[in-house]
Amino acid sequence: MKPVVIIGAGPSGLAAAYELTKNNVSVVIIERLPQIGGLSRTLRRDGARYDIGPHRFFTQNKEVHQLWVDILQDDLLAVERLTRIFYKNKFFYYPLQPMNALFGIGAIDTVKILSSYFSTRIQQRMTPREAKTFEDWVVAQFGRRLFEIFFKTYTEKVWGIPCTEIGAEWAGQRIKGLSLWTAVMNAVFKPKSKNIKTLVDEFVFPRGGAGIIYEMMGEQVQQHGGKIVTDSHAVGFRHEGNRVKSVIVENSRGQQEEIEGDAFLVSSPLTEGILGFDPLPPRNIMDAAESLRYRAHVGVDLEAAGNPFPDNWIYVHATDVYLARVANYRNFSKEMARTTDTSPLTVEYFCFRGDHIWNRSDEQLIELATEEMKQMKILMPDQISNSFVVRNEKAYPVLEIGYEKKMDLLKDYTSSFENFQPIGRCGMFKYNNMDHAIVTGLLAARNYMGEKFDVWSVNIDADYHEGGEALSTKSNPGEETSR
Question: Which domain holds residue 323?
Fold first, then answer.
């Protein structure tokens, strides 16, 4: 029997392999990097641990939460959440807290924000219209003034395009359930129940870093007979009729081999997979694939003396620096720090391959991050003892206006092959959260084993990461966390 071939050892690929090997299905995973975990991997450097960026383990899917509990057991921590926005040399809590925003912005700007919000709501009542762009959606929920202060700059740093060119879908997913009105009401009228914790307050996290759970999943996959091939990537797929027959794999030395499979679950970038089909797809399919873009991620990892800030991570909305976010992993788990008096940090930049950020050398990027942290008065250069750079070329699908029509073509084309399933964020060109990516892997595996799930429907209703009940670190996830 030929194996199921899984491309990519990130959350979705490993979840699929975990499910299949538990059911005695032969599996081969092909991973481009030397380490598994994808964008959720944890790096070790001189005794300190760094994630690629901040990861919250939060889900409303009890099966996924139970999976985390089962694998990590006592190594799953409950973490108090603190995240803030840095804007005009001041910190503002996120999600926004009205009194903090009032004193930070000032009375005059607060009046302007409230006036903008209420005028927007009145206008929406009188002439309702569907939000088509990120800007439309946020302005409708928060008013234009607050959008321009707290949303526009950061969003455009992340995506590299104007907010008017980003689809409303992303806003609905990331900010669903929040508005200026709900923020004020939640601040004034505290929830009576103390047993319910939203992600605003708490999330769970692996003791040794986000990637630990995927390393443990990988170990269990191998214990059940699965094979993981690292430092290799898929460069093409051979197909015949309505079935994919094999994948062409190239290792880091440029050597190629062809691996036949009974089915192919693909979490690597969808555009790469389609453009690597042999025979080639129709021209309109190739045009659609070539026109979709991914955003790159560059992390500058710094080991700093002390604990420079108390946040898990900070969103940087300031317009005078390029960095978009900075995470402090000591505030996720103390065991990620090398010593009791140091903190591992990641300074994050978002870019396109070939732009002014990507083209800088590692030394220039470290210098940039060091200077910008100093400029923000968060970290001084003499506090830094170690530094290195991690680049991820295709990290996030760019959800530009009109991408849906192109994706419809690609979905129809891939669905014409009965044994080929895209999974995960990059594989489906869909801004899935980590738990959603895991679900796509689990469902794709179950489809192979005879069930019938629509993997594309995962997260279709845009369940938001900021809402819902936090689940316990204990084995019964139905009980809310009470601490």
Answer: 294-397
